[in-house]
Amino acid sequence: MLWRWMYGNGKWAQHVDDLEGFNKSFVSMLRDTAEFNVLSCEETRVAMDGTKKMIFNLGGNDRIETVLIPGPRNRVTVCVSSQVGCAMNCQFCYTGRMGLRRNLTAAQIVEQLVIAQRSCAADMGQVSNVVFMGMGEPLHNIDNVLRAAEIMIDLHGLHISPRKITVSTSGLVPQLRRFCRESSCSLAVSLNATTDEVRNWIMPINRKYNLAALLGALKEELSSKKDFKVLFEYILLAGINDSVEDAHRLIQLVRDIPCKINLITFNPHTEAAFIPTSEQKMLHFRDIIANAGLVVAIRHSRGDDQMAACGQLGQLGLDRAPKLKVPRQFQSVLTQAEDHLSAAAIL
């Protein structure tokens, strides 16, 4: 009964006083020992496209952000965070510049979805999809992420289909193997490069688990899963990973893995000098992959005018993760990008 009042039947109890049908001694015990609200929403920002960013205060200087994204055909996606900050230090990601401050508990992860359900029920409708693509590397906090996902899919709880819950990773291979074996939810892998040299730079986790190790693990784990496709995410960075050669290498890398590919627009921010690939070049990149028989789509930015888009979440403090040395062949590209951004700022 308590589970249903917390998560099921559209009740989402916020306080012990919201409960009905329980005996007084049980309610009294809950009042003394349990806490219903583990997050406090201090601000909601609404982007021009209707995307909502909710900022939660965890106490002190720790904050996390959750994004509600309305879509076509009554689709509502909630993007949840799994950590305060992130240890992966991906060079294109604003959250990565924060470094890791702490993991979220399963309760704090689930509460993001519960509060989002309450918030969007009136104007957006029911949440249809959940993506673990907010702040943090989900598989770096795998115990709490797995527990939170189980609550989200529970028949008597939030009851979201596991196929509509997607957990994203930058490529922590041991945890990825565990996820594939223990979870029925969907998996996304943030790839973003077709050579180890480039991935070592923009995604330092590749220095520990390179492309061969990551893709080899995926092949092994997916060989025993029926009707399962991994989603590869590929952020296109102008002059870095968007060449025709990159497109052909990507095809060869993933050809033997059941997959879909999402090409993602880079969302600019003050902590990275990259610039987005042009739309014309993105379309050409997509067409090369599609013509090879792979399933590919372009995912356009949502909420970027409120720093709510992919790679834009978080609030920086004085301590920041280091920027890594740029490979020589890309130094001129980054210099041109910085000049472009400086000129745009002046205008």
Automatic annotation (TrEMBL):
Record keyword ATP-binding present: no
GO molecular function: 4 iron, 4 sulfur cluster binding; metal ion binding; RNA methyltransferase activity
Entry superkingdom: Eukaryota
Reported cofactor(s): [4Fe-4S] cluster
Gene3D superfamilies listed in its UniProt record: Aldolase class I (3.20.20.70)
Main localization (coarse): cytoplasm
PROSITE patterns: RADICAL_SAM
Residue ranges annotated for the Radical SAM core domain, each copy included: 72-305
Record's subcellular location: Cytoplasm
GO biological process: rRNA base methylation; tRNA methylation
Keywords of this entry: 4Fe-4S, Cytoplasm, Iron, Iron-sulfur, Metal-binding, Methyltransferase, rRNA processing, S-adenosyl-L-methionine, Transferase
Keyword Iron-sulfur on entry: yes
GO CC term (a single one): cytoplasm
Protein name per its UniProtKB record: Radical SAM core domain-containing protein
